[in-house]
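Reopening closed ticket. The problem is back. First fold of the pair:
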Amino acid sequence: MAEISGHTGLVELLGSPVEHSLSPAIHNCSFGELGIDAVYLVAEATPETVGDAIAGARALGLWGLNVTMPCKNAVIEHLDGLSPAAEIMGAVNTIAVEDGKLIGHNTDGAGLLRSVAEAGFDVVGKKMTVIGAGGAGSAVFTQAAVDGVGQISVFNARDEFFDATEERIRDLASRTGADVKLYDLGDTQVLAREIGESLVVVDATRVGMAPLEDQSNVQGEWLHAGQAVVDTVYHPLETKLLKIAAEAGATAIDGLGMLLWQAAIAEEIWFGRTMPVDVVRSRVFS
């Protein structure tokens, strides 16, 4: 991070809780490497107070913002516009100042797809399976549809949100022309088939994170060499899913890739600069 002066800009993360966020370490390291005269801080905000936080950001002339849970949806009504992907997702994690207006973006799904591309996989026109249709999963399959992934199979527990998710996926397919279908996660026969046919498999659930470290939504015999298998969990770094993926000969991609690349894409939006991802990865996570 550059020395703070009267010219130093402020970028801030809004959400709750945010005190344990890795974003300040990631962005301040990157700002320092790139010579960007800015500092990245965090601030507590809830859906009830995020409007006041955005008004404060306008008044103080912040250079950009990130938004995390539980404010990704609630912040939208306080912005001046949305990117196409953020509009479809109905969720924002990055806010840019564009011609004096605050424009909401969502870099979560793009970050995961960038981590897959970094591993050497081109998903355009190919098949992908996404497990979990919550915030992370929705961002992934929405961005995949926008980016031209050929077929997207989404699996989610048949809970009280299943019907609403199915409607949202139909709307996504209509708006993007993508082949997106929702399945019941409890139907393991269909899950095994779709995973076996997919170039990329993404688990966007909490399975693999404490207290579910010894569990996986995927069985090793469903996987094979030539696939990319991604777990959005990054603590622990090697989940059970990634262990069995490696044993099956697939390329295992941990959740740090999504975390780093969504941050890198945010910096591209704010400053038009390319984050030195390898340097940040080595300094922040080694």
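Second fold of the pair, where the issue appears:
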Amino acid sequence: MKMICFGDSLTFGYQVTRAEKWHVIAEKKTGIQMVNRGVNGDTTEGMLSRIKQQVFDAKPDGVILMGGYNDIFFNRSWDRAAQNMRTMVDQSRANNIQVFVAIPPPIHLPVAFKEGGELIDFEKSAVMIEAYCQWLRAFTAANRIPTVDFRTDIDWADEDLYLDGIHQSPAGHQRMADRLIALLVPRLRCQAHLT
């Protein structure tokens, strides 16, 4: 079984080693091949432009879509991110790919992110991110799309789970991996019983 993890730096695993990334940890535990197609700094617009080549043409069994924060940071809106996520979900389903939508972790204020961080109002962004994540929950529930909730199903109070207030530390990646494993293992057992 092959699954593509598709998104931005939260998917890619910004500034952690490959072995420490959430998808690699989950791959070792579940036996599912996890292909990382995260791109640092990407927006959902960028994801939409590359999804055919990097996901549909690869013909995976499943895809985990996680993006939208950069849209909010740089475009100061989440409406476009929501539209693009809806489009990517619809296209994935049309290509007979099992789609999972990941709800990203919260940002940890105050953010110590330096590269371009002086241009971003992180407090306002945090409010918009909350609205966007609420939309993701409502959208996935209404359309019966499995979610990987990296936001509310994990306690992110510990600053050591972050590198800079946005990106996860190795310990944060472990928490994300544990959440994904908890979602996938029961599904694998169910599939094993059906075959």
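Update: turned out to be a display glitch only; the data is intact. Residues 170-194 form the longest helix (25 residues). The chain has a mean pLDDT of 92. Please close again.
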